[in-house]
Every structure is written in C-alpha cells, then in structure tokens.
Amino acid sequence: MYFITKIRDTIRVPPTKFSSNLDKSILDICREDMEGLTDAEIGIVVAVTDAHKLGEGKIIPGDASAYFDSEISLLTYKPIVNEVVEGAITEATEFGAFIKTGPVEGLIHVSQIADDFVSYDAQLPGFVGRDTKKTLKIGDQVVARIVSVSMKNTVADSKIGLTMRQPGLGKKEWAKLKTVVKTPKSAKPKSAPKGGDEA
C-alpha cells in the first residue's frame, strides 16, 4: 500500500549546495540519499516529494557544511499482510512465479498459484493446472493476496509471499473457465441381511 509519510531529519548541506534556494538544495540531497531506502516502519521510499528547512542551520567546527533540521515528505510503499495487489508475472521458475507489485517483487509459491495441482512447463515458461488446464506465464496480469512480509535493509533482501488460491484471485480469464468437478465414485450398496427365524 502507498503512503505519504512526513519525517523530520537533520540534513547536511555542503558549501557547493549553498544557494539562494536552500529548500531546493535540501530536496535534491534528500532525493539522492533517501529514494530506494527500506525501513521496517515506513516501508520503501519510492520518492521524496517535498523538503524544507526548519529554522537556521548549524555549523560544526572543522566541517564547512551546514546542518539543517528539515521536514521531509515521502511517498512510501509498505506491503501489508492480507492486502490484495495486482501486477504482472515477471519470472517463472520450478518453485513459483514472481509478480511485480509496486517497487518490489513478490513470490507466489507453486503450491499457492491455483486451487489445483499445478506443474511447471519450461516451454511456456510457466505453469499448467492438471484438472482445470489453467495456464500462467510471464507477462500475465494477476491479482494476488499478500500472506507474508519480511522487510530488510534493501529492496533486494526484502521478501513478500503471495497466494492466488482463493476466489477472485489469479488471472481474470480464470473466472470465466469452467471448473472441473470430480464426482465421487458411488459406494457399493450394502448387501441385505440374510432373513431367517432365530431359534
């Protein structure tokens, strides 16, 4: 889910960035330093949308830079468990499919692709359902639900687990397919008890 997040931080502005428009210099520095960062609390910083100084800067002896307390507005993306997301399949492997959702990729494990036994087909490359014949391949647009989130220090190290094993999830075309229903084999009728009078 996307959020607008406001934070306060002290920004170091080197002398080369001193100008009549210090707020623009602070914004440029924040964009360079913060965009793409990951934080367990606020998620992934997608963009710095605004930044401005709060008061006068401070100078530290031996450092020509000035330090400004600043208020910064961020566009962040934080995946939330049970959130429904939409995206395209970017990769298919024997153990599952990867979906691009926002600035990060999530994994749909092979057991979570469909409510059917699904096998990997290297020729697609993608997956085929045994009974339903549903297919999933690179480029397909899908709807999935987030089931697990592990946010680390970088986007590459963060992990998102997804499922498509529920009604309304998966490819839109799947909703139009007829579901194959297996009818149980009828049980053999019980033999009638033998008649006769008891002595």
From TrEMBL:
InterPro entries the UniProt entry points to: NA-bd_OB-fold, RNA_pol_Rpb7-like_N_sf, RNAP_E/RPC8, RNApol_Rpo7, Rpb7-like, Rpb7-like_N, S1_domain
GO molecular function: DNA binding; DNA-directed RNA polymerase activity
Keywords: Cytoplasm, DNA-directed RNA polymerase, Nucleotidyltransferase, Transcription, Transferase
Coiled coil spans: none
Chief subcellular location: cytoplasm
Top enzyme category: transferase
Subunit (UniProt): Part of the RNA polymerase complex. Forms a stalk with Rpo4 that extends from the main structure.
Assigned protein family: Belongs to the eukaryotic RPB7/RPC8 RNA polymerase subunit family.
Protein name: DNA-directed RNA polymerase subunit Rpo7
Lineage start: Archaea, Candidatus Iainarchaeota, Candidatus Iainarchaeia, Candidatus Iainarchaeales, Candidatus Iainarchaeaceae
Gene name as annotated: rpo7
